[in-house]
């Protein structure tokens, strides 16, 4: 991926000015997706159940010059899912362009049909 964004090809793929929510972004594929989106210029918000792991990843990304924010969230808790959406809406001033929802696939029915979830975008 080295310096792709600064090349002419990379400029066509620039995500500068876009916002993204990547759930489960501190490990595995989620971690790689956060990093790729940030490399292309997106401002990314991610979440994890583990605050220590989240802090470590955010510090690593900020050290690379990426614009990444995050909070803890346990997807099995409707209250925490609601709070995640509120935090993302606040951070991005209501603008969300990209959603990569890894944990939502596990809790899809709970999330999509919960009467406690309010979308603020």
From TrEMBL:
Gene Ontology molecular function terms on file: oxidoreductase activity
Record-linked SUPFAM superfamilies: NAD(P)-binding Rossmann-fold domains
Keyword ATP-binding: no
Keyword Transmembrane (UniProt): yes
Pfam families associated with the record: adh_short
Membrane-spanning intervals of the chain: 96-119
Keyword annotations from UniProtKB, A to Z: Membrane, NADP, Oxidoreductase, Transmembrane, Transmembrane helix
Family: Belongs to the short-chain dehydrogenases/reductases (SDR) family. SDR65C subfamily.
Protein name (Swiss-Prot/TrEMBL): Uncharacterized protein
Naturally occurring in which organism (per UniProt): Pisum sativum (Garden pea)
Record lineage: Eukaryota, Viridiplantae, Streptophyta, Embryophyta, Tracheophyta
């Amino acid at each position: 991926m080295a310096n792709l964004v600064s090349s002419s090809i990379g400029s066509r793929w620039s995500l500068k000015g876009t916002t993204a929510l990547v759930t489960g972004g501190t490990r595995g594929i989620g971690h790689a997706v956060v990093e790729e989106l940030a490399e292309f210029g997106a401002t990314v918000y991610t979440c994890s159940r583990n605050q220590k792991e989240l802090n470590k990843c955010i510090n690593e990304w900020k050290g690379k010059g990426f614009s990444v924010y995050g909070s803890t969230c346990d997807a099995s808790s409707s209250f925490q899912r609601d709070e995640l959406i509120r935090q993302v809406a606040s951070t991005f001033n209501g603008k969300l362009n990209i959603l990569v929802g890894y944990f939502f696939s596990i809790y899809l029915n709970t999330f999509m049909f919960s009467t406690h979830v309010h979308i603020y975008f």
